[in-house]
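**Reference record**
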Amino acid sequence: MTIHQTNITPQQLLDLARRLAPEQRRWLVATIQQELDDDLPTHATVDEAIALYLADRCSLARAAELAAISQWELKGILAEHSTPARAGNDYTSVDELDAQAEPAWAQTNILGSFAAADALPSLFAVLATNSITIPPAVEAEIQMGVTHNVNHLQKLLDVISDKRLVVAPLNLQPQAAITNFPHQLNIGEREAIALAAHHRAVLLTNDRRALSYCATEQIATLDLKQLLRGLWIRKVVAQAAVRSMIARMEQVDRTVFLDRDIQQIFAPRRRQP
């Protein structure tokens, strides 16, 4: 018996994948993602972690976790190397903020940016909510940041004390779901995604990998650009105030806004049909 081996090109594979049903595509993406996860090390030096992050192998928070440092320390190192963490996500469209924003679960990156800008009240206002919920791992990340002298994060601990930032435990179902999530995301990101999915809530995140995974799993998200745009669209604050927030985020939180990010945030409102 003769066996003929046929080589399939990536384009042919993509054409085949496009013929699959949506749930089959999601399974394929998750399976390929898991294959890539298996190649991720359990520990890394700071230089190795930076290389993984810059190669888009993991999120910034996960890279910091691999290097056993805080994500704010890693942000500082990136800034010193003139490769700071970006505010924007190229595939994320900046649309009008819609009514899905309540309830909300948040990851550390969004909360840290608004704390750096001294704009936490504006975040609650744009979401039209009195509280935002976080998982235990995100609270631990905030506490770790404060321990490492990231002083603006103390504002988040104060909001936790005021019970406007609510720390909610994971029940068995979200805990079980976390084991299937991409390991390019750190534990805080995975917990927040699991709880947002379980409670059918919107997830506040600015990590590109988290946003991509949520899009695949049809989990509602809002990123930093969308929230900043929503501030002036919903008339929470004027555009000038949003620009001041952006300047503070860049200065204090080492977040970088590219020209196209600014253009998207302040693009004229679309006319209603």
Remarks:
- The domain at 99-226 is CATH 3.40.50.1010 (Rossmann fold).
- Strands lie at 104-106, 132-134, 165-167, 202-204, 221-222.
- DSSP finds 15 helices and five strands in the chain.
